[in-house]
Design a protein that fits this description.
Elements lengths: L4 H18 L14 H7 L18 H13 L4 H21 L2 H13 L4 E4 L15 E5 L2 E12 L6 E11 L2 E10 L5 E5 L11 E12 L3 E2 L5 H39 L5 H30 L7 H25 L8 H28 L6
Parallel strand pairs: 1-4
Antiparallel strand pairs: 2-3, 3-7, 4-5, 5-8, 6-7
Helix pairs in contact: 1-3, 3-6, 3-7, 4-5, 4-6, 6-7, 6-8, 6-9, 7-8, 8-9
Bound molecules: flavin-adenine dinucleotide (FAD).
The site of flavin-adenine dinucleotide has 19 residues, from strand 1, strand 3 and helix 9.
Length: 376
């Protein structure tokens, strides 16, 4: 699929940065030596791709970001870097630009666009993940503001974040919890940051957990509608993240695995060329299908309906990408090989990130068939 003219420039830039990321140096303990790559991406405006032009960004579409993430990982950029970059772009576009007040946008977005600032999404909790039924962080009204108490974990970009978008329970609507999101500055009294040990994969993305002990924030810290943060912010964020990672970064990684396998075959062909060709043909076809579905999903996000309606497309995307991954794993195993370097583990971790939501979406789709709401 040839890129459109609009996609060509970001694609070229992403591929160029992939080469720099691939060449990153490691210290004696295998930890990456800081190379200023993110700062350099910031200087070139790449951290502002998703930020509206009015706030110093480039206002790019999700579809442009999708193909750029794919090209970045395919070109040798690490999936962990893609995760970190994608989270920065999604927080800027989906959360702050999408739901911020003019003041919040003025204060946060220009600094995010230039890469001087990043903001982390703080939704998941230890022992709860992102399951709304089990999330416990609370925000209670106090004077003209709120007091937040709780704990959040696995926060991508958290160690460098200047602020956190914290999701807290502020009441109930019927049997359901009502969530409100707050922009909490890192220096807010009562907020402590604990950097997480490296995940062992997805380097150089850095993670942390935070504790909120009677953190007092003004009412102006509320992001979006009070009590509606789950449906307005968390769900769209997860959908966009899944489209861009499962549909962009992961296919880029699968393509690299495919190319690696083919290089190995050409260097030392196996005996059964027919079986190998079928296996590789299957992986290539599934990869192409995944990219088509991902593109449709990203165009849906860019359209007037936003994330509504994209959840089902995501079910198909996830299943196709997983199937492609299995074909490739079988192809490597058939040659008695494991995945090269950490790429396979990184791809699997990114896929696992979207798996619980994907299973829930699949289930909901299944129920609608069982209840006779789908036309058979
Ligand atoms: C590499 C990495 C980066 C991460 N980055 C962040 C981050 O920046 N911020 C953050 O807050 N967390 C982050 N997380 C946490 C992540 O979102 C999960 O909460 C965590 O991995 C725990 O996963 P889980 O298996 O409990 O499943 P979760 O994905 O947390 O899901 C738990 C349950 O919630 C329900 N559920 C989830 N989504 C849906 C849906 N769409 N529809 C219906 N039900 C649903 C399902 O019942 C599901 O089983 C990260 C995790 C990893 C591994």
């Amino acid at each position: 699929m040839a890129p459109s003219r609009r996609e060509a420039a970001p694609l070229k830039q992403a591929a160029a940065f992939a080469k720099r990321d691939a060449g990153m140096r490691l210290d004696g303990a295998g930890r990456p030596v800081p190379d200023g790559l993110l700062a350099s991406m910031g200087r070139r405006g790449m951290l502002g791709w998703s930020i509206p032009e009015a706030y110093g960004g480039q206002g790019r579409r999700y579809a442009d970001i999708l193909t750029a993430l794919d090209a970045f990982v395919r070109g040798g950029g690490r999936p962990g870097r893609a995760l970190s970059w994608a989270v920065h772009l999604i927080v800027g576009k989906t959360l702050i630009a999408g739901s911020g007040t003019s003041r919040q946008k003025r204060e946060i977005l220009p600094a995010m666009a230039s890469g001087k600032k990043t903001v982390s999404i703080a939704l998941s909790e230890p022992d709860a993940g992102s399951d709304p039924k089990r999330i416990r962080t609370r925000a209670a009204r106090s004077g003209d503001g709120y007091v937040l108490d709780g704990e959040k974990a696995w926060l991508t970009n958290g160690p460098e974040a200047d602020a956190f978008v914290v999701f807290a329970v502020t009441g109930h609507r019927g049997a359901r919890k009502g969530f409100t999101a707050f922009v909490v500055p890192r220096e807010c009294p009562g907020l402590t940051v604990r950097n997480a040990p490296p995940l062992g994969c997805l380097e150089p993305a850095a993670h942390c957990s935070i504790r909120l002990d009677r953190c007092r924030v003004p009412a102006t810290a509320v992001l979006g509608r009070e009590g509606r943060a789950w449906e307005d912010l968390s769900k769209p964020f997860r959908v966009v993240e899944d489209v861009l990672l499962s549909g962009g970064a992961v296919p880029g990684g699968l393509h690299r695995l495919l190319e690696h396998w083919i290089r190995g075959w050409r260097a030392s062909p196996g005996k059964d060329a027919v079986e190998a060709a079928e296996r590789i043909g299957e992986a290539a076809a599934l990869l192409e299908t995944a990219r088509l579905i991902a593109r449709e999903a990203a165009c849906g996000l860019d359209g007037p309906q936003g994330d509504a309606g994209v959840e089902r497309t995501l079910v198909s995307l996830h299943l196709t990408v997983k199937r492609c991954r299995e074909s490739l794993r079988a192809a490597f195993e058939a040659r008695g090989l494991g995945d090269p370097d950490a790429l396979g583990i990184d791809v699997d971790t990114l896929l696992a990130l979207g798996e619980p939501a994907s299973r829930a979406r699949r289930r909901n789709w299944g129920y609608s068939w069982l209840d006779g709401k789908e036309r058979s």
